[in-house]
Each structure stands twice: as C-alpha cells, then as structure tokens.
Amino acid sequence: MSIYRNAVWFVKGLQEYTKGGFEAAAKLFAPADLDVNLSGRSFMITGANSGIGKATAQEIANRGGIVHMVCRNKGRADAAKDEIVERSKNQNVHVHVVDMSSARQVWEFAQNFSQNNSVHVLINNAGCMVNQRELTEEGVEKNFATNTLGTYILTTALIPALKKVEDPRVVTVSSGGMLTQKLNVDDLQFAKGAFDGTMAYAQNKRQQVILTERWASQHKDIHFSSMHPGWADTPAVQSSMPSFHAKMQSRLRTEAMGADTVVWLAASPAAIKQPSGLFFQDRKAVATHLPLASSRSTPPEEEKLLAALEEFALKFKP
Fold it and tell me: Which Pfam families does the entry link to (predicted)?
C-alpha cells in the first residue's frame, strides 16, 4: 500500500470524513431534496440490522417506503425491524435472512425474491472486515466473498427485476478507504504474502466502485451510484478497527450522518439528475482517485475482474 496514498488520504479524512466535515457539507444541502413520499416504492437494504444499514432503513420507512431488510442474523434483524416499525409506524418492513458471504444463498434469495416481489432500489450496504484470512464454507476468502462477490451476484441477479419498474436505482456503500488502493486482479483472494484485513477491505471497496462504473455503462435504464459514508461510529468500526475507533471516537459521524447520502441517492429526485456510475460523498460526486496516486486501473484489468466474478458467480449458481 502506497505510503503517499495513505498519508494524503488520512489528511483528507481528517478534513472531510469526520463529524465536522459532514456538518460543513450539510450547510449546502437542499432540505427539500428528501421531502419525499416513498409509498409504493420497494427498497432492499443488505446489512440492515445495525449501523448505516439500519439508519438507512429507518429513514426509508419514515418516508413510507417498503423496506426489505437482508440480514444474516435473524434475532438481531427482528429486533431492528421492531424498532424501525415502532419509530416509523410503517408496517411494511420485512426481514430476509441471507448470509451475503454465501454465493449460493445470495443466488437462491435473489431468484426467489424476484419471483414474488418488485424492487425499485437496491442498497448494497452489507460488508465485513475480517482481520485474519478466513475462507467461507464455499472456499472463498471471506472479505471478498461478502463485499465483492455477494454484491456482484445480488446486483446481477436483480437487474432484470429492476428493469421492470420506474426509476430503478442501485446504491453501493463503498468507502473512501478505496482511494488508498489500486485494483489488483492477480490476487483477488489475498492468498499471496502477509494478510492485511484493512487492505483487503479497501481493495474490495475499490472493486465495488469499478463495478458501479461498469454496470452504469452496461445498463443505461438503471441509475447506479457508489458512495463513501465518511468515518462513522458504527458497531462494525468498533469491532474491526478498535484502535482507530478509540482514537477518533469524538470526531466520528453518527450513523444517521453516515446514512444521509445513501438515503439521498436512493430516494431523492435530485440524485438521478446526476450521471449514473459516479462516486459520492456528502451528496456530491467526488473523484475516485487521489492526485498523483497512480491508482488507476486499465480496461483489461477491469475486464479481468468482471470475468473472474462472472466465473465465480456461475460456479455457485443453483
């Protein structure tokens, strides 16, 4: 990982990704952008039982949307659902138990869901940062399986359903950490050298941004976007990055602040006036590379990523 990229990124983060950065950006927000009634529109949110996913689900439910919470743990999902319903008085909140690290489960869920439900907006929020190299039962490295392959399969499988509705959107919660990474298609499962969970996570988040750009060019009738929520105080940050959380806790954003741009991209009429395929931070499209960072990938490298994901996806397709 480039020392230059890391240094520039951290300084940028202290200015922009903190609670103060959000508060400064929010002064320019148009309040009317989220003054919307989402009744009749269906939102699927992965990883919706805590953190940014739960905050997003709450905001969508508050505005009358149909919420489909895709979560791994039924007990935590049911508890989060009850809280969301209680606060929003919206009964149209549904739990689906799916492990996003299991390619077969994701395929089966998406295929069954499409047969019985419509979806207007897919929010790819589920993610993990596993700090020791670990394989799933299907033999896939867990960070890659959850963050990249699960996102790829769910999105790909739901594209036909999305194309049947009005104003379809796909929002992928990436991370500004991806700015520290150049796509590495030669070691997608981090089998070479010493394993670094933070680097693996950032690499996955770079992959998500590239996927968003590719999907946008392939499917013009769906609005795709990726985004960085900033540095938010979530259970995932507390457990995966305890030292960072301890040092930065007073400056971290709330979960609602982290979710703001997700909700804006998913629900606001203003968001779809932006070109498809862009990367957002605090309701604005921002660059996907740091200045002079040498992090751009070539079209053949990106094609190799897509080919590898398609090969994995077909391997596990029921």
Answer: adh_short (PF00106)
